[in-house]
């Protein structure tokens, strides 16, 4: 079992010394960021990075994001950074944004799945940034979950799943945002949004034209190439069948969900609508609350042993687009918009 380190309170940077040595020795460290928890390893050590793919059961053609603590560290792993890319880095780092940049040779192929590019993010979470700084190397870290499952937003949720698959477990409490970072790639001065997140399309539009990846809300077909390879895979899904319902007209949506509700179903809905259903749990009222709670709720549904889970969708504006991107995948694209 991985060694547990409780940093939920009385955090001091010194307490990370041992975990940073573990990173330097090529071991796996579970750690918090402001988005979701990550399974981290030295991103420049290919043997260490391979262990991440084994621990998660992740397909080798799905590249990892390198987490950095300084601009100098970005320049060690990426080259030909354009003025617009520097502008985005200066504006949003540290924070929940990943930028796909041209990679340098120093980055092992196993990190990038043999692509010429590398995903780079500078987390805002103090524990994450201190761990990277003390390790003095970029940390490769996908979300902390077995591939296909919802990402971990607190240690309790992923304890059984991952405790024996990592060497070190750093508990920093609940993650602030609860959804993975926004992923973008600048191509010919246009900002391509590959995965929506807390940094929204509307915010990015202030920096240039934003092009939405067609796969944000749609399935990737067998013969299609996705700019973000992660979009191809089953994601965030409970074992129980789930269906997502949405309408701009709230009363129409509730009526439709009521019709779907049977004896052994569970409804996941806005707190305001709980009383409309026989058996429902609330995911919060604001988009911020919903993004913070949604993975925890998706992780809890299998224990309830239902035949079907009916999930209320949200507007696709602001961080709503990120929530819908995750929910559509959690429902394996079983989505009804009325
Ligand atoms: P996760 O590791 O679970 O946070 O997911 C990272 C996401 O970023 C996945 O969807 C990856 O496919 C995507 N990604 C990472 N590196 C690259 C890259 N070089 N080019 C395109 N997408 C990337
Ligand atoms: Mg993930």
Overall SS class:
alpha/beta
CATH topology assignment of the largest domain: DHBP synthase
Mean pLDDT: 96
- For the record, the CATH class of the largest domain is Alpha Beta
Oligomer: single chain
User: What hetero molecules are bound to the protein chains?
Assistant: adenosine monophosphate, magnesium ion
Find the CATH superfamily of the largest domain. DHBP synthase
Shape: globular
Total strand segments: 17
Helix segment tally:
11
Strand residue content: 15-25%
CATH architecture of the largest domain: Alpha-Beta Complex
Uncertain residue segments:
none
Major sheet summary line:
12 strands, mixed
Query: Domains counted in the coordinates: how many?
Result: 2
Can you give the helix content as a percent range?
Answer: 25-40%
């Amino acid at each position: 079992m991985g060694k547990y380190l409780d940093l939920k309170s009385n955090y001091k940077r010194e307490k990370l010394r041992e975990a940073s040595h573990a990173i330097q020795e090529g071991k796996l460290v579970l750690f918090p960021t402001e988005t979701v928890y990550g399974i981290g390893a030295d991103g420049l050590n290919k043997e260490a990075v391979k262990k991440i793919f084994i621990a998660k059961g992740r397909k080798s053609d799905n590249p990892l994001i390198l987490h950095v603590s300084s601009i100098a560290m970005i320049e060690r792993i990426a080259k030909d950074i354009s003025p617009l890319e520097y502008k985005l880095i200066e504006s949003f780092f540290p924070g929940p944004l990943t930028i796909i940049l041209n990679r340098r040779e120093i980055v092992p192929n196993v990190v990038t799945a043999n692509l010429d590019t590398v995903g780079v993010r500078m987390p805002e979470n103090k524990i994450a940034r201190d761990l990277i700084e003390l390790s003095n190397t970029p940390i490769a870290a996908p979300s902390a979950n077995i591939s296909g499952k919802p990402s971990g937003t607190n240690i309790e949720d992923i304890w059984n799943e991952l405790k024996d698959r990592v060497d070190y477990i750093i508990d920093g409490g609940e993650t602030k945002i609860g959804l993975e970072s926004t992923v973008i790639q600048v191509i010919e001065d246009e900002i391509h949004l590959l995965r929506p997140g807390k940094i929204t399309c509307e915010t990015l539009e202030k920096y240039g034209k934003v092009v939405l990846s067609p796969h944000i809300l749609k399935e990737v077909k067998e013969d299609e190439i996705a700019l973000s390879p992660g979009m191809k895979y089953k994601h965030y899904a409970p074992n129980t069948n789930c269906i997502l319902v949405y309408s701009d007209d709230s009363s129409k949506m509730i009526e439709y969900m009521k019709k779907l509700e049977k004896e052994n179903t569970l409804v996941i809905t806005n707190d305001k609508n709980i009383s409309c259903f026989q058996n429902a749990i609330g995911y919060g009222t604001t988009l911020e609350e919903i993004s913070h709670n949604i993975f925890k709720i998706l992780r809890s549904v299998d224990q309830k042993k239902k035949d079907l889970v009916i999930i209320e969708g949200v507007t696709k504006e602001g961080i709503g687009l990120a929530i819908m991107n995750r929910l559509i995948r959690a429902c394996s694209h079983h989505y009804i918009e009325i």
